[in-house]
Amino acid sequence: MKKLLVFFCALISCATAFSQGNNYEQTYEKFEGLALTPPMGWNSWNKFACNVNEQLIRETADAMVASGMKEAGYTFINIDDCWHGERDSLGFIHPDPERFPSGMKALADYIHSKGLKFGIYSDAGSMTCGGRPGSRGYEFQDALTYASWGVDYLKYDWCNTEGLKAEGAYMTMSAALRRAGRPVVLSICEWGTDEPWKWGPRVGHLWRTTGDIYNCFDCVEDHGTWKSWGVMQILDKQEGLRQYAGPGHWNDPDMMEVGNGMTVNEDRAHFAMWSMLAAPLIAGNDLRKMSKETTEILTNKEVIAVNQDKLGIQGFKYSSNNGLETWFKPLDGGKWAVVFLNRSDAAQTVTFDWRKTSIKDELSNRELNASNDTYKVRNLWSKKDAGTTKKTFKATVPKHDAVMLVLSK
Ligand code: GLA
Description:
Number of strands: 22
CATH superfamily of the largest domain: Aldolase class I
CATH class of the largest domain: Alpha Beta
Structural class: alpha/beta
Shape: globular
CATH topology of the largest domain: TIM Barrel
Strand order of the largest sheet: 11-8-7-6-5-2-1-12
Distance between the termini: 81 Å
Helix content: 25-40%
Radius of gyration: 24 Å
Bound molecules: alpha-D-galactopyranose
């Protein structure tokens, strides 16, 4: 009997302790009302990797305005890895004094003076992927520092996080930002490992769905212990994720490689697909030296409008045949965006009879029925009207290119 009593008491105290543990409630919520459409901006990593400094960032801000990108909707100027110097004796992080001699507050002020927003990068682990100080154990302190600098966007990476659980680690930074009080878009860069689309919507505003993008249309780069992925490989990895995206919380298939060396056709296809995916449009090229073609792609307002559509419904693949894919994206006002993507190595002819196909999107409960309604067809790259859905659509799509249309009633 005594033994039983001891056992019983042990059970009660254990249960009490357990319930106390469970009683802890996270009282901070992410900033709502940010990123109601996919964020648009620029990030230093794809082109400059660790070679960042304040002159580059200021010149990029200037170029974002001068090139027409700001006018087209791009807002964020984001510094990726390697801006960091050391932590001081009180634990405060400082920028690298050689690369950022004027300090981050002055840089943020400059960016804000151009009507743009300022983004920065850190890591949930002890060190960033580039070996700079991470935020682990310093989350609330770093968030205060970022707020004092005027940071508007934080990309938070996942290197050197042994023993951490992703959701909790990102919750901690989300809470820290909230506590610091300055609204910050939180970009979860966890590479899709722990299915961030399932917990990310509560914690941040966008989450990487894959490992890093590679500047190539259709290939895989093997780095030994990890791989980076071409545009088509990343596109394929988005399958099954569209239901998780929506206003304020987006799937992030990584920053763009437009203007970094692929062909103009490939860049066009890349930009068309990121727009169909309702992906964040974060340019990753040198904005100071853009070709006319690159500028035209990145600032095509009608394509951007597909990406920024207020419904925030991620597009879907309707069919795939010999490397020719047809994609649809429902838009506000009963409109539809359509892309014919040619992944193959030869030009292909598209023949699409709108009236013979009824397109149903079960997720958004929307239907494109061209035998009941006639839609006007607009070609977004040639910027020309292309008749109506009464006529079968015909076009030649060059290899690694995409024809993009909007249908409206
Ligand atoms: C990781 C991220 C990249 C970039 C680098 C910086 O690989 O996924 O986007 O931020 O780290 O080191």
